[in-house]
Specification:
alpha/beta, two-stranded antiparallel ribbon, 13 helices, 8 strands, globular
């Protein structure tokens, strides 16, 4: 073995039903006295009990998918004007992403309270969209100082969103097997993440209010994000980031659709990763394990269902090819990438 692994510094609190007190404790531990609370209108009922326990000087509700630069700019100005000294985000990946955008410039600490399985709360990756281009980067300033996982906040998450968000977390695991900085520790975390997600997601799909299933899924999503933060963004995420920014596609659903096609593309040339993924699913083959889970979950099937135009494939080909890491297990050509995108667009069966 020869590798270098960096573990990101972060406090993680699992506290089902106790997020108001847990968030207050984290804010106090970080010395926060002027909280900017970021939560969209959709998350108001979840954020209100938390707001009552912390010293809020500003509530910011403008949250937009893919974090447009103009939205981030407005949030930054309100944070500065209010004199905020700490950020608390209550919501999914877009909410966490907006807090990160503010922290990127101000350096303010973040306490993240996820209400989906997005995983952004456990990474030092930020993303901003300008026009049709989504730009991502890595900066330790955007890593939330604390994460509070409260399974009770996810009991009202719609079933379709639960499935898509959970498969987005699964994509973090799969990409972590062959990301540009992937190492044995990342693969071990990702393998356990896949196992937990494969166990938790069907339970949540069967009973959306079951705390045990939600906690198992949150645990898997956290491991997925930690592995991904270390391994770096691989082929799957590069495809999804380009398509999401270019065509304003819904983030989680795009990941859920693209994942099986990337796994089928790379698995033949990544035998160790394929074996780990298969074992985590309890299946003979990685692709078969994922397919079985997707069938149980009735997962999203085709990019065209979410608004991607067919002629967008040719438009996206160049930017995606440029973004895919050089160490991708399978060599990428215009021909095989076009075939992958065509199949994902149409929702074609995977052989």
């Amino acid at each position: 073995m020869k590798f270098t692994h960096a573990t990101l510094p972060q406090r993680v609190v699992f506290a089902a039903g106790e997020s108001p007190a847990a968030v207050a404790a984290e804010v106090e531990a970080l010395g926060g006295s002027k909280v900017m609370l970021i939560a969209s209108d959709r998350e108001k009922e979840l954020a209100d009990p938390i707001a009552k326990e912390i010293p809020v000087v500003l509530r910011h509700e403008e949250v937009v998918m893919h974090v447009p630069v103009e939205v981030a700019g407005r949030a930054l100005r309100t944070a500065v004007d209010a004199g905020a000294d700490i950020l608390v985000s209550v919501g999914g990946g877009s909410t966490t992403g907006l807090a990160k955008a503010v922290a990127l410039t101000t350096g303010l600490p973040i306490v993240a309270v996820p209400t989906t399985y997005a995983g952004s709360e456990a990474t030092n990756v930020w993303g901003l969209t300008e026009g049709e281009t989504k730009t991502t980067g890595v900066d330790d300033k955007v890593l939330p100082a604390s994460v509070v996982y409260d399974a009770g906040l996810l009991t009202s998450l719609p079933g379709e969103m639960t499935v898509a968000s959970g498969l987005n977390a699964m994509a973090h695991c799969v990409d972590s097997m062959w990301g540009p900085r992937a190492d044995p520790i990342d693969r071990a975390l990702a393998q356990e993440g896949i196992r937990a997600l494969a166990s938790g997601l069907p339970a949540v799909a069967d009973d959306s209010t079951g705390i045990e299933g939600i906690e198992q899924t949150l645990y898997g999503a956290y491991l997925a994000a930690v592995a991904f933060a270390s391994a770096g963004s691989g082929m799957h995420h590069k495809i999804c980031h380009v398509l999401g920014g270019m065509f304003n596609l819904p983030h989680a659903q795009t990941h859920a659709v693209v994942l099986p096609y990337v796994l089928a593309f790379n698995a033949p040339h990544a035998p160790e990763a394929e074996a780990r993924i298969a074992q985590a699913f309890g299946s003979g083959k990685a692709g078969a394990g994922l397919a079985a889970l997707r069938k149980v979950l009735d997962a999203p099937r085709a990019l065209r269902d979410y608004g991607m135009p067919e002629d967008g494939i040719a438009k996206a080909l160049g930017p995606i090819t440029k973004a895919i890491p050089d160490n991708n297990p399978t060599a990428v050509t215009d021909e095989n990438l076009t075939a992958l995108l065509n199949a994902a667009w149409a929702g074609d069966p995977i052989n």
